[in-house]
Protein 1
Amino acid sequence: MNKPAELKIDTVPCWIGGKPVASAARFGEVYNPATGQVTKRVVFSDAGLVDSAVKAATAALPEWRDASILRRARVMQKFLVLLQQNQKQIATLITQEHGKTLPDAMGSVQRGIEVVEFACGIPHLLKGEYSENVGTAVDTHTVRQPVGVCAGITPFNFPAMVPLWMFPMAVACGNTFILKPSEKVPSAATRMAELFKEAGLPDGVFNVVHGDKVAVEALLLHKDISAISFVGSTPIAKYIYETCAKQGKRVQALGGAKNHAVVLPDADLEFTADALIGAGYGSAGERCMAISAVVAVGAAADPLVKLLEKKARAIKVGPGDRDGVEMGPLVTAQHRDKVASYIEKGKAEGAKAVLDGSAPPVKEGFFLGTSLFDNVKPGMQIYKDEIFGPVLVVLRVDTLDEAIELVNRNPYANGTAIFTESGGAARRFENEVQVGMVGINVPIPVPVAFYSFGGWKNSLFGDLHVHGMEGVKFYTRTKVVTTRWPHQDTPAPGLNMPTLG
């Protein structure tokens, strides 16, 4: 009897020196979360492959660093056009590997494209300062120069958007870059590398290495990498920050979140509930800016919980590429099981399970339903931990004072929101809450590309946020130049400390 033919699957290659590299000692499996089936394999880079990428980036650095800012801007403009033309293709790859719905994937790619639009203005963004006659016949000016070879390590939940927060800014500033995307969702990164080459980017300026912890460690410890950008969980963000800081690398490491939405009794509850449903269950809750904790103030609680239950129950769950589906699967079976374990913890801890989504609504794939807990207390694990799934918890307080205190006690400080029709209450919340990004009747306050994204406290390790002007500052170093053109009759500086006047 003949054996059935073995199913051949594609290999997602690395991208090094302007070409795909598919040979490796190890490979990982890439799943379609909607079916639970392996659809591709991906190269798992070892230290040698990472070193090859660093060598390619190092070799390309002098020419690209010295390229005119107009040349860099024009390459970025061509890359922007190609991203726009291929937006649906990239979004489809994301849906196939992450599971989020196609409209959600399209939106996330669009938010990444907006950073490229911002980077196209790099000739203006890199302008320095100039002061004439800071002393007699002495002028001072500043220039912004690239830091060198940079690397980015990005999470599974935004395979295009988060990388696009990093590498366009770094490359536009004159650096070279190595991207290590999540091995769970590798295809979008490699496709963007192909498009960047098509836009005219010189070989070696942008490279992609895939893999697990082995590849990450190789990047963190490589002596020729000057800066590391990271988005992921808080424990890993802290580890990356400490590891790189010890070696003198520049680091921005964005960590986890437990984002609160405070709802006051005067809020438009229908509008608020719709906003919270999208913020809590969109992308199956796998967003660092997802609202996962609702703080209901006073009389808002009972009617709000009823609305949330009604709307959460009506969410259509299924494969992300199917019309009408509002929430797709979780990214892996392991993550689905971890989220399901939190649902059981919540019930065991005494929270009221208004909706229990632990029974998968779809037989195949890595699905969960929507879960909603009421009467949650700050000491419960379902409140303290970042669940990263379709689980929304409601805490009840009596006053705005208590709500602000509750938010500020939390060790995470990524994003928060308040829903109210009171300008005074909103202004007070905005001023007193200790969180990096705040929404006023906006549930997911992700800044536009010309502002910077980043949290406070355990949600960020490092001083500078991503994209916007803080991104320009992160990927450049400021040099201050003081100039004098002496005449023959000008006395030469003596041995004393020079002063100006």
Protein 2
Amino acid sequence: MLKTIRYAAFGLIALLSAGWGVVWFTDGDLGKLRLENLGAAIPGGVTVGGPVALTDTKGATVTEATFRGRWMLVYFGYTYCPDVCPTELQTISVALDKLGPAGKPIVPIFITIDPERDTQAALAEYVKLFDDRLVGLTGTKEQIAAAAKSYRVYYAKTTPKDASAYLMDHSSFIYLLGPDGTLRTLFRQGVGAQELADSLKSRLSAGS
């Protein structure tokens, strides 16, 4: 299954590079890929996102239709992530704060790629560290793999030398989905909170 996800990630790289003229960087692993520009429009015919069936921190089933009619900021990561994930989630939280009431139509969503450790209880504790609005989602290994494949997310378990616990190598993007559930743009790793807020405000005002 992870082999399929890896191929999907490479497919997204090719699509982005060809369709948007962006530059990709990697330090030897796909988990460090990032876009050089702020965000990018989605070329016609490219599908990212789709049917999912996951579980929130209260045990309720969440599908792709649960938040239909609202904008969604989706990020894939895991609670044991030492740096990238908390940084990106903090950026999302600050950006929503900067939007104020204008940000109410947006639902921030955190989907784990480490269901083995990220239980409902673990996610509940984690997401509240960042923002009460943040929705944490987990599921079975198969459900997470299906969701990651749908969003062309790469992830894999890795154990650093001399480490007692494993880490998760993963791609890092913030996905913006419109009220109709279609992907509108991606934001690179390291995007600033003000940049993100400005882009979201512009898109919400334009309705696209």
Protein 3
Amino acid sequence: MVNENNQGKWEFGSHEWCQSAAKLGVRLIEEASLDLSKYEWGFSEEYTHTPERLLARHDKAGYHFMIHNGKVSGGTSLPDECLALPGFHVSVDWALIAHSSYFPFNREGWQERQAAHTVLRAELQAAGIIPNWHQLHETATEKREPRCTACGSPDHERQNCPVWPPGIGEILSANTSRETKWLRRSPELEDLPETKWGVPIFTKMTNEQRVRFIKLLGR
């Protein structure tokens, strides 16, 4: 749940937050004792329109980790080497997820957050605002054919998933460590209506709040 007492270490998207998320991803994979020679896989997240004060003189906000040539590495950059690998790669507006991504790789509340984000995207689209949100696949309710249980694609079975290869997805989603309560609430979003899990509720915003939120999305 979002830290309502504002006692987190860092704000989402800050250099420190991204650096710690990358280190956590690398550590979880290293501790799993996987045969890394079997994987060529990358993970990257870029947060667009991140407030300049959080960039710490960096051009972009985001992080990556990857398994390449039998080794795992990561950092706050978004290298082409990682982006070229099969895996999970996403670019999303910072304001859409800053308060709902309270700490990485934990599935607590993920269904509620996913449902709320689906509603938010529909509300923004209905208002003529198309968010910078990259969906790899349609939601499971939009088609009835069998889908990969890891990423939702109808194009392959779970054991052949390039987004979350068997072993990787389970390791990351099973993380339940509470040492990673990193989220400090951001003043730009502080008074906006949101769900229990930190997803903005566009239809409950005042006109002033909507204008401010849309500006945060770079629109």
Protein 4
Amino acid sequence: MIGLAGAAFNRDKEQEMATGDKIELGRYTLVSQAYTEDDNANYGSRAALLDVYRNGKFLTQLNPEERRFKASEGQPVHIVAIHSTLREDLYVTYQGLNNQTGHPIIKAIINPLVNWIWIGVLVIAFGTGMALVPNAALVTVQVPKAEAVAAMEKQGMQPVGAGK
């Protein structure tokens, strides 16, 4: 439930970015360092190299990419770059090029508490597994003798439902 509640606080920003431009989103600053284009036998790709800063301190580099596979007539596939923590996930995608300026369009998304959804799934799976494990200890139960029936027969009575 904690992970699902975090979805109410998602934030995103999409921006055209030339080399050296910045996106500021929450505690994160993304700075574009370089862009590449590649073409091979299976697909053509465009990618961005972004430095990620959190609260002004360098954190990591992310490399979102867009691929266009030749077999599917150039249908774009976006390869997401992710920085994940228990607190939040930072997703960065390369959305394409602005045809007028030739600059890439980058989209950054902050999804809080996503990992708590996965932790919840593990807790449920573990709990289910524990519930399915049989008890290891044998329990012995004393079964009383049918003394009452013998006493009834002595007096000439029969249990209910027994007929002669």
